[in-house]
Amino acid sequence: MWVARPHLQVLYTGLSSFIGPRIELLQTDRTKRVQSAANLSFGFNLAQTGLKLLGALLTGSVSLLSEALHSVSDVISSFVSLVSVRAAAAPPDDEHPYGHGKIDTLAGLSEAIILFIFALYTAVMAIIHFFEKPEIGKLDWGIVIVTACASIGFLVMRHVAKVGSETESFALKSNAQHIQVDIITTIGVIAALVVTKLTNWPYADPLFALLLSVWLGYSSVKMIHSAFDQVIDSHIDQEELELIQGILANEPELISYHKLRTRHSGEQHFVEMHIVVPRIWTVVQAHDLADRIEKRIETELAPCICTIHVDPDSDIPGNDTGE
User: Fold this and answer.
1) In the chain, at which residue ranges do the beta strands (DSSP E only) sit?
2) What are the Cα distances from residue 171, in Å, to 70, 166, 167, 317?
3) What pLDDT score does 19 carry?
4) Helix (H) or strand (E) holding 30
5) Structure pTM?
6) Which of 47, 170, 191, 280 is most buried when burial is the number of CB atoms within 10 A of its CB?
7) Which tops the pLDDT comparison, 12 or 32?
């Protein structure tokens, strides 16, 4: 029979009390970093939207107009991120015992839907300009404006993407994808304006605008799919699942586990499972093992809530598969 080692339990309890407050501190730091990145993104998108709308008015370019509308969606996206990251950071309450993390996911979903709507509008405008072929002027101003926006946008995108990845904020990751798409499409607008300036070919501008709408539509559908995965409680990433399995494999007293279920709520992880222990164990022994596994998983996947149910081995036949 397995007997708990008192000195190891004291050591583990001491480590837990040492690490726990620091996890809370890291979560507070996470909120500040996410909010700071959201503020930066919002400020940049607001500024570049104004510049691109000015460039569209000066040049009459439909590709630049569509890019300006795309930036309008980025402003909305940044504003939604700014609001949602603050709301999602609110602690659990009586009405929302699992926290408010889904606000972050819903924000990303709304941003993707807005982007899809603008993609449709861009396609319609491009088709109209294929037939109308309006005159485009002051192309130098347009080229300077979009080049400046693309250069600054690259720096902002890298920072927002880094913070979103490190904090697992879906809204920030979605926002960074918005900016990345914006940079790519802005480069395309530069190319369209340069071609128009050099060749006077009337179809260069609406042709690129149409291609831009296809790209925006594709990107928005990918983001919608990713958001729905979290809304309908898909399991956490495969790497994180393997991490859990590794923790369980390193517990020699554990006979097996089953009914492993995981999900996301914003950056929060939720893990549930049943573990099988020797039938002759006492309640205290079974509880100590379950508690140790819960704390290890919660530490490795922080922020995380892990809940474990204990089963005696003779009641659950065929559980040596770990499934």
Assistant:
1) 256-265, 268-277, 304-312
2) 17, 13, 11, 44
3) 43
4) helix 6-59
5) 0.58
6) 170
7) 32
**Neighbour tally for 200: CB within 10 Å:** 10
Which residue is listed with tokens 């730091």? 29
SS3 200: coil
Per the model's pLDDT, the better-predicted residue between 61 and 307 turns out to be 307
Q: In what order do the strands lie in the sheet with 268-277?
A: 256-265, 268-277, 304-312
- Who's near 286: CB < 8 A, 6+ residues apart? 277, 310
The first and second tokens of residue 225, run together, are 């799919």
Hey, what are 56's tokens? 């569209």
Q: How far is it, in rounded angstroms, from Cα 314 to Cα 20?
A: 36
Q: Is 306 helix (H, G, I), strand (E, B) or coil?
A: strand
Q: Which CATH class is domain 236-315?
A: alpha beta
Residue 175 burial by Cβ neighbours in a 10 Å radius (0-12, 13-18, 19+): buried
**Residue owning tokens 């020797």:** 278
Average pLDDT over residues 67-95: 74
Q: What is the pLDDT of residue 235?
A: 81
Contact between 117 and 146 under an 8 Å Cβ cutoff? The reply is no
| Residues constituting the chain | 323
In sequence order, what E strands does 124-218 have? none
CATH class of 12-231: mainly alpha
Structural domain spans, the chain: 12-231, 236-315
What residues have CB less than 8 Å from 88, skipping those under 6 apart?
99, 100, 101, 102, 103, 104, 107, 171, 266
Question: If you search the block for the tokens 């569209």, which residue do you land on?
Answer: 56
Please state, in angstroms and rounded to a whole number, the distance separating the CA atoms of residues 104 and 83: 9
Name residue 44's amino acid. Answer: F
